[in-house]
Each structure stands twice: as C-alpha cells, then as structure tokens.
Amino acid sequence: QVELVESGGGLVQAGGSLRLSCAASGRTFRRNAMGWFRQAPGKEREFVATINWSGGTTYYVDSVKGRFTISRDSAKNTVYLQMNSLKPEDTAVYFCAARPWEFSGVSVDGSEYAYWGQGTQVTVSS
Predict the structure, then answer these.
(1) So what's the pLDDT on residue 104?
(2) What whole-number distance in Å separates Cα of residue 11 and Cα of residue 33?
(3) Which of 41, 79, 107, 109 could form a disulfide with 22 if both were Cys (CB 3.0 to 4.6 A apart)?
(4) In which residue ranges of the chain is pLDDT below 70?
(5) Closest alpha carbon to 124 in 37, 44, 12, 46
(6) Residue 73, burial from CB neighbour count under 10 angstroms (0-12, 13-18, 19+)
(7) What pLDDT, on the 0 to 100 scale, is given for residue 52?
(8) Quick one: 102 exposed, middle or buried, by C-beta within 10 A (0-12, 13-18, 19+)?
C-alpha cells in the first residue's frame, strides 16, 4: 500500500520559517516526480512546487519563488519544502503528491499526480 505522510506544519509568525517533510512508504518513489500543493479555506487547491526524479529540475508558483525551496532525498524516500519569509497568505493545508512511476518530469497540474498525502496545516500569523 502506497502512503505519503506529511509533517512539519504548525503555527508561525510572519517572516518565520518551516520545513515540511513528505515521507513515502509502500514503494520507492525514486523515479517519480513529486510536488507540493496547498489549499486555503474557501479556495481551490493550488500548485506550489514540483521536483523531477533526479532533483535537477524544480519549478515554483510565482508567489513563492525566492522564499520556498523543494528538495528530495531519494535514499530516504522523502521530499522537503523549506519555507522562508512566510506570509499570512501562505496559510493553508499543504499536500504532498507523487506522479505515477513512469512520469519522472515536473508538472504543475494536480490531475497528473497519482498519489496524495493527507496534508499538514500551516498557519502564518500577522
């Protein structure tokens, strides 16, 4: 059974930092592209960041460029999202996702991801 489990969320003041982790179990995701998405109350799910299978290609939504960094440790089957200079508008539930095994390239389209975690809450106070 494939499972993605996010951790690292919490409450932080504006300007602070958090690092989210996404641990995969049930199979290796070494060849899968991975992504982070978020959903704020009353809003649709939004793409945040994606990374290809090797870690050599990353892509971010404009609103987080220069503040967030996605990375992966394939040996640990884990993907990270380092979030710096957090803003109140970053408040949301953050979800980790994995593309199907044969798709190693990045994607900003949530419908192209096959596996999803349960999410972790990030709250940024002003």
Answers:
(1) 85
(2) 28
(3) 79
(4) none
(5) 12
(6) exposed
(7) 94
(8) exposed
Find out whether 51 and 57 touch, Cβ atoms under 8 Å: yes
Q: How many residues does the chain have?
A: 126
**Which residues are CB-contacts of 69 (< 8 A; sequence separation ≥ 6)?**
58, 81, 82, 84
Q: What is the largest CA-CA distance in the chain?
A: 42
User: In what helix (H) or strand (E) does residue 12 lie, and over which residues does it extend?
Assistant: strand 10-13
> Quick check: helix, strand or coil at residue 39?
strand
DSSP string, 78-114: EEEEEE-S--GGG-EEEEEEE--TT--S----GGG--
Cα angle for residues 5, 7, 13 (degrees, 5° grid): 150
DSSP string computed for 14-35: TT--EEEEEEEESS--TTS-EE
Give the pLDDT confidence score for residue 72 in this predicted structure: 96
Specify the pLDDT at position 97. 96
